Amino acid sequence: MITPVLPTYARADLEFETGEGPYLVTASGERYLDFGAGVAVNVVGHAHPALIAALTEQAHKVWHTSNLYRVPGQDKLARRLIDLTFADTVFFANSGAEALECAIKMARKFHAAGGHPERYELITMEGAFHGRTLATIAAGGQAKYLEGFGPATPGFVQVPFGDLKALKEAIGPATAGVLIEPIQGEGGLRVVPRDILRNIRAICDEADILLVLDEVQTGVGRTGTLFAHEQAGITPDIMAIAKAIGGGFPVGACLATENAARGMTAGTHGSTFGGNPLAMAVANAVIDLVTEENFLPHVRELGIKLKQKLARLVDQHPTIIEEVRGEGLMIGLKCRVLNTDLVAALRKEHVLMIGAGDNVVRMLPPLNIEEKHLDEALDGLERACCALEEAAAQKQAAGATT
Q1: pLDDT digit string (tens) for 84-113?
Q2: Rounded to the nearest 5°, which phi and psi values hold at 188?
Q3: Which positions ≥6 away from 387 have C-beta within 8 Å?
Q4: pTM, rounded to two decimals
Q5: Where are the domains of the chain?
Q6: Taking the chain, what is the end-to-end CA distance rounded to the nearest angstrom?
Q7: Are the C-beta atoms of residues 280 and 75 closer than 8 Å to each other?
Q8: Pairing mode, if any, of strands 330-335 and 238-241?
Q9: Distances, alpha carbon 220 to alpha carbons 68, 81, 273, 274, in Å
Q10: What is the Cα–Cα distance from 279 to 94, expressed in whole angstroms?
Q11: Do 120 and 111 touch, CB atoms closer than 8 A?
C-alpha cells in the first residue's frame, strides 16, 4: 500500500521537533549536530532570532498578494542583490529548480529576441545537477534522474567535466550558452578550477553566447565569498540562486545583466508565489546577516581550519576516506567505503551529513558555526570511521574462519 506521502524519498527514520543554532532536537530530547543544514539551506542555523523577527513582523502585515501588484520587499532585495553582484535585474521564484527554469528560458529568449531563435541549446557538464523538473533533469543529463520520464527535454548538450576542448567542439549554430555549477554539489563536490572558469567565460565571449551559472548550492557565502564565481574573477550573464538566500524559507532567484534579459518582457515568465512578502522579509534578513563585516571572513577562516583538521583525519583513516574536496564550508569527503555507510555511522554519533554523487559525503554546516562545532563534528567523524574500520575487521576475521 502506498504511503500517504508519495514515497519518492529514502528518508532516515528520524524526525525533529525543534532546532537551535547548528543543532536539531527530537521529541525525546536527542540532539544532533546538523552538518547538512537542510542541504546547504540553513545558512545561519535553526531558529535564528533575526529571521524569526523578520518573519513574525511580516506575518502580522500581509502574507501574499501575488505578482499582480508590487511587492516592496522584492524591490528592496532586488536592489541589494544588484548592488552586491554583476546583475541589473532579478526574478524571484520559490526554489533552485524554478530559478534554473527562468535562467534556461532567459538564455533561449535572449537569442530569439536578437533574431536567432534557432540558438536554444545549453552546454552542460557531466555530473551536473540542476533540479528535478523535466528541463533541469535534462540539463543534468544523469540517467538515474531521466529514466522513466520519456524523451529528455531537448536543448542540452553534455561534455565531460572540465574539458575545454570538448566544450569548444560542442559549440554550434544552435548553441545559446554554457550552464555550469562552479562546484558540483550533488555531483560530488567537484570544483571547476578557476582557470577553467576564466577560460569558459572567454569562450562564451568569443562565440557570442551566454554564461549561465548555477549557484544554487554555492551561493550566499557557502564557499567563503558571496558567490563562488567571484574567486575566479569572472561574472556570468545569468545566475540562478536559492537555498541559502531564504535561510530555510523557500526562495529562489534568477539574476541577469540587462543585455541577457532583453527578451524577458511582460508575460514571458511568471510565478504566483515567487517573491511573496513573507519570503522577501526573510531573505532580506539573511542578506543583513551575510553581509555583516566579519561574516564571510569567518566562513573562510573556518573553511581553512576544517580542511586542516580533515587532512589529519584522512591520514589516520585512509581505508575510509580517500580525499577532501570543496571550498569554504562546502566540503566533500570522497569515500573508500559506501558513502551511505559513513552517513549512517555518523548518524549513530548524532552528527548529520549528506551523501552526494561520486561516493561522497557532504559537510554543509550553517555558516555561523564556531570552531567548537567543527571539533564536535570531527570527533563524531573520528568515531564513525573507527566503527566502520572495526566492522570491516570483524567481517574479515569471520571470513577467515569460514
Answers
A1: 999 999 999 999 999 999 999 999 999 999
A2: 115, 30
A3: 345, 348
A4: 0.96
A5: 18-34+294-400, 49-290
A6: 41
A7: no
A8: unpaired
A9: 28, 10, 22, 19
A10: 9
A11: yes
pLDDT tens per residue, range 299-349: 999 999 999 999 999 999 999 999 999 999 999 999 999 999 999 999 999
Cα 228 to Cα 81, 219, 243, 358: the distances in Å are 15, 6, 14, 21
| Helix, coil or strand: residue 363 | strand
Superfamily of domain 18-34+294-400, CATH level 4 = Aspartate Aminotransferase, domain 1 (3.90.1150.10)
331-351 in b/e form (b: 16+ CB < 10 A) is bbbbbebebebbbebbbebeb
The Cα 40–Cα 134 span in angstroms is 23
Q: Give the separation between CA 328 and CA 355, rounded to whole angstroms.
A: 18
* pLDDT at 136 exceeding the cut of 80: yes
* Residue 25 near residue 18, CB atoms below 8 Å: yes
Instruction: List pLDDT tens digits, range 283-306.
Output: 999 999 999 999 999 999 999 999
402: pLDDT strictly greater than 70 = no
Cell triple for 216: 544554487
Beta pairing class for 31-34 and 23-25: antiparallel
Residue 109, number of CB atoms within 10 A of its CB: 21
- Which grid coordinates belong to 108? 533561449
pLDDT digit string, tens, across residues 194-215: 999 999 999 999 999 999 999 9
What would the grid cell of residue 325 be?
Answer: 574536496
Tell me the CATH class for 49-290. Answer: alpha beta
Other CB atoms within a 10 A radius of the CB of residue 163 amount to 14
Report the candidate in 39, 40, 41, 44 with the shortest Cα–Cα distance to residue 22.
44
Say if residue 396's pLDDT is above 90: no
- Please give the order of strands across the beta sheet that includes 175-180: 89-93, 252-256, 238-241, 210-214, 175-180, 121-125, 156-159
Query: pLDDT digits over 275-288, tens only?
Result: 999 999 999 999 99
